[in-house]
């Protein structure tokens, strides 16, 4: 491999790319990492770390947490906190008495939240190059494209060009939100998840367009922060998730202030003299057209892989219709020395931990000659909507397709969340196990709605990975009082059949 400058070049400085590069270097591979961020349609940009760190998981959960504090402040008086202080313009002011239902008296400041979130992100950005340097990995902030299967050309911020060679490459460039080009005004005036977490002004009245978890998470925390929010959905919410849980999420959000327009699609966005945006939208049949003004229009209607300018086509690399790189089960593309991991890989799952684990396993296969492959089954995930949703395995709908309706036993339990009952907050948790009847009631789908969904789901996911059955859940002693114990208390009376029956 001495004929090449590097043994291994990683293209993409997100979580997966960084993990892969560090693992390869650990096994002695001479490794370099390239990363470059194109500005969003509204000019937002960021530093190394990828989507998760800069415009995804990390800022999303921090803003979700801020919205949860709004509920806690309202409920505090019921738990004995009669006099609370809040900070307004640098002055401590006393808020007296029971203020449940009057949380608007407590000052919320968008700029402070954005400043705190961005400060944390910048600290992470600062550490990544330091960690790479410690690992002996050169980091180049350059936009690259393939010259041939062993050569890339990098262009830096000043337009300077240079070529680099390597024996092997991995593409880990992820994807970016798509804002439609066929809706007049969308590209000019709408924002996406690339922009919301650093938005230099309070979002005000906001329209969130999209049925995905990104749209719902954003709508959820903005509503919780006190803004007027509407979600516009063309068809069904969260199509790839359990639909019973999706319906409960929508119901909870609607009951707590988020408005829904279903089934509507945007047709045009115009900027008005007052600075607001006039959105023209219509029923999907096109017969009914309406207009409404908003301060912010937010699109979450899918993501596109960052392969367009990478030059994959000139190498004859096979891509799917969306532009993702088609690979085998070892993440190898149709060009044998080029691999792909993370969101840019066709057929994968767009989650940060997937990219990280896939990257580490790839490096081990290439440079430590280990055999481990990424397992894309039974991957746990959490959606941080106001009523958090954790899941692992199949939705009820997917399980019915594989096992048939008669081949399933579905256990369901709705329960009151203890933490909310003293404050008379009407929040119901939901626990659901989808079991394969003819496989000793093996649990093939786990679903939970309630507080701390990520922490709870993470533990139960291990049980599913090890092939747990309903009897295993029955033998487990529940921790009391917790929401998690509901999964140990499901009886035959809780068996609800399949698909809502």
General description of the model:
This protein is an alpha/beta fold and 501 residues long. The chain has helices spanning 15-26, 50-55, 57-75, 110-134, 186-189, 213-224, 243-255, 352-367, 396-403, 453-465, 470-475, and strands at residues 6-11, 31-34, 83-88, 91-96, 139-140, 143-148, 151-155, 161-171, 175-177, 206-209, 229-232, 259-261, 264-271, 277-283, 289-294, 296-299, 303-305, 338-340, 381-383, 389-393, 408-416, 428-436, 442-449. Helix 3 (57-75) runs parallel beside helix 6 (213-224). Residues 97-104 and 497-501 have low confidence and may be disordered.
Write the layout of secondary structure elements.
Blueprint: E1 6-11, H1 15-26, E2 31-34, H2 50-55, H3 57-75, E3 83-88, E4 91-96, H4 110-134, E5 139-140, E6 143-148, E7 151-155, E8 161-171, E9 175-177, H5 186-189, E10 206-209, H6 213-224, E11 229-232, H7 243-255, E12 259-261, E13 264-271, E14 277-283, E15 289-294, E16 296-299, E17 303-305, E18 338-340, H8 352-367, E19 381-383, E20 389-393, H9 396-403, E21 408-416, E22 428-436, E23 442-449, H10 453-465, H11 470-475
Parallel strand pairs: 1-2, 1-8, 2-5, 8-18, 10-11, 10-16, 11-12
Antiparallel strand pairs: 3-4, 6-7, 7-8, 9-17, 13-14, 14-15, 19-20, 20-23, 21-22, 22-23
Helix pairs in contact: 1-8, 3-4, 3-6
């Amino acid at each position: 491999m001495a004929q090449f400058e590097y043994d291994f070049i990683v293209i993409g400085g997100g979580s997966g790319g960084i993990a892969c590069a560090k693992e390869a270097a650990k096994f002695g591979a001479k490794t370099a990492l390239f990363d470059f961020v194109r500005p969003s349609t509204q000019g937002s940009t960021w530093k190394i770390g990828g989507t998760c760190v800069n415009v995804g998981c990390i800022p999303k959960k921090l803003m979700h947490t801020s919205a949860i504090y709004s509920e806690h402040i309202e409920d505090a008086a019921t738990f004995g906190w009669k006099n609370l202080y809040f900070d307004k313009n640098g002055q401590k002011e006393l808020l007296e008495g029971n203020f449940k239902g009057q949380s608007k008296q407590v000052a919320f400041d968008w700029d402070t939240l954005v400043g705190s979130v961005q400060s944390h992100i910048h600290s992470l950005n600062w550490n990544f190059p330091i960690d790479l340097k410690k690992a002996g990995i050169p980091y180049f902030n350059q936009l690259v494209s393939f010259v041939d299967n062993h050569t890339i050309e990098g262009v830096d911020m000043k337009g300077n060009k240079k070529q680099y060679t390597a024996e092997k490459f991995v593409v880990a460039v992820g994807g970016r939100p798509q804002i439609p080009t066929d809706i007049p005004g969308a590209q000019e005036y709408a924002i996406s998840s690339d922009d919301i977490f650093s938005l230099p002004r309070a979002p005000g009245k906001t329209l969130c367009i999209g049925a995905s978890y990104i749209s719902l998470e954003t709508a959820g925390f903005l509503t919780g922060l006190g803004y007027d929010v509407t979600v516009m959905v063309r068809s069904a919410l969260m199509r790839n998730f359990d639909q019973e849980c999706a319906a409960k999420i929508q119901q909870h959000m609607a009951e707590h202030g988020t408005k829904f327009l279903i089934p509507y699609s945007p047709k045009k966005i115009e900027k008005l003299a007052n600075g607001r945006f006039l959105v023209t939208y219509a029923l999907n049949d096109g017969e009914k057209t309406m207009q409404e003004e908003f301060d912010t229009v937010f699109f979450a209607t899918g993501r596109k892989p960052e392969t367009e300018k990478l030059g994959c086509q000139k190498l004859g690399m096979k891509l799917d219709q969306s532009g993702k790189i088609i690979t085998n089960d070892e993440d190898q593309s149709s060009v044998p020395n080029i691999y792909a991991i993370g969101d840019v890989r066709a057929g994968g799952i767009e989650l940060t931990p997937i990219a990280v684990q896939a990257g580490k396993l790839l490096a081990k296969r290439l440079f430590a000659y280990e055999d481990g492959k990424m397992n894309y089954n039974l991957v746990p995930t959490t959606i941080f909507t106001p009523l958090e949703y954790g899941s692992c395995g199949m939705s009820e709908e997917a399980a019915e397709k594989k096992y048939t309706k008669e081949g399933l036993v579905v256990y369901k339990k709705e329960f009151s969340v203890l933490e909310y009952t003293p404050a008379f907050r009407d929040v119901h948790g939901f626990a659901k196990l989808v079991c394969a009847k003819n496989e000793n009631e093996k649990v093939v789908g786990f679903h939970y709605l309630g507080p701390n969904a990520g922490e709870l789901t993470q533990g139960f996911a291990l049980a599913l990975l090890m092939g747990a059955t309903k009897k295993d859940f029955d033998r487990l002693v529940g921790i009391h009082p917790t929401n998690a114990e509901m999964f140990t208390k499901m009886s035959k009376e809780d068996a609800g059949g399949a698909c809502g029956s």
